[in-house]
Amino acid sequence: MRGERLTAAQHRLVAQLTRISESESIPLEAALGRYLADDVLAPVDVPPRAVSLYDGYALAGPVVSDSIWPVVGESFAGDSPPPLSTNAAMRIFTGSVLPDGANAVIAQEAVDRTGDAIRLNESISPGDGVRPRGADSRQGDCILEAGTRLDAPQLGLLASVGHGFVSVVRKPRIAVFTTGNELIQPGEPLAPGKIYNANHPMLVGALSRLGVTVLDLGCLPDDADRLRAALAGAATQSDLVITSGGVSVGEADFVRQVVEELGRVDQWRVFLKPGKPLAFGDVAGTPFIGLPGNPVSTFVTFFLFVRPAIRVLSGADPDIDRPPLRLPLAESRPAGDRPEFVRVRRTRDGAGQTNLSVFRNQNSGLLSSMAWADGVALMPVGVDLVAGDVVDYFPFEAWYL
After folding, report:
1. What fold characterizes domain 325-399?
2. Which of 312, 308, 315 is nearest to 39 (CA)?
3. Helix 255-262 and helix 224-237, axial crossing angle in degrees, nearest 10
4. What's the CA gap between 383 and 247, in Å, rounded?
5. What are the pLDDT digits (tens) for 192-225?
6. Domain ranges within the chain, ordered by starting residue
7. Can you supply one Gene Ontology CC term for this chain's record (predicted)?
């Protein structure tokens, strides 16, 4: 069985998921990385009154070059200045409220001041130098939509309209465990036939970066009864269960078998390299994603499938159709029989051109390649590529957003 195409499998997975219904109101300072539960409307205009764009003079009346204006006061940021009479000027500073009656602001560099009067060195038009009331947002406007991920600019926007608290979707609870008789925990003596469990801290770390609540169920042996109990328990506590290992066709690969007993496997195998032995479905109604066991396959499929699932659970767009970056390869690459995500690093050639250098060995068990790389590039099926050919590039940092 060759396996389903990547994008089709991704869309089929997210189509089975729904947003978590519970929400909570939290302080703005605690909302970084969370997802809005509801649309946010502006309760006030921003700015609430017209303000000056720069240091200068607010003017009331027709503005022409060489005219002379008496200066009748000052408006500092935070002041509520008195009205300005016609044909008069008021000293004003960046962000200060425009006095009633003023219709423009002239920059201080464009005037000559002598005592309490200024001479204008240029003509300006009504509205120049002014940020009007409501220029940023108007009362009643939807300033952020439900499902928006709150980063620093969004927090600033919410603060600008006076929101001290915000309603966000409850953090998804993600149960995770790894499987394999060969695995031991880092820090323990390395016994014959054993390897250290690298996938577990990698998955827990990636989940933590995505801002979820992690239910860490540790590492389980290749034992059907132990797996059955763990999966059944995880399904009652979590919004999504993910595992690493045990979904291939080996005699000790029990995860797929147990999932089918407790629920269903909707997808098995994806036409992809690395990461072909991937499964998803549900355990007693709770969504399940079974990642492959090789570390690189685990990492790549985590971000191709688990990350979109978490976004949908949080009420956001799955972000699986966003156009990738397009960059040229620094070297040739032979054709493959499956779409392949190869580990690459951005480099610059002698002409200052950014290229993608490919790691020397693309074996899916080499975590050193992931630590070296800053992203992956997608190699199309059946195409011999040469240096300079442009490919799709996915930087790792974008996968954490």
Report:
1. Beta-clip (2.40.340)
2. 315
3. 50
4. 30
5. 999 999 999 999 999 999 999 999 999 998 889 9
6. 4-21+171-313, 24-46+148-169, 51-131, 325-399
7. cytosol
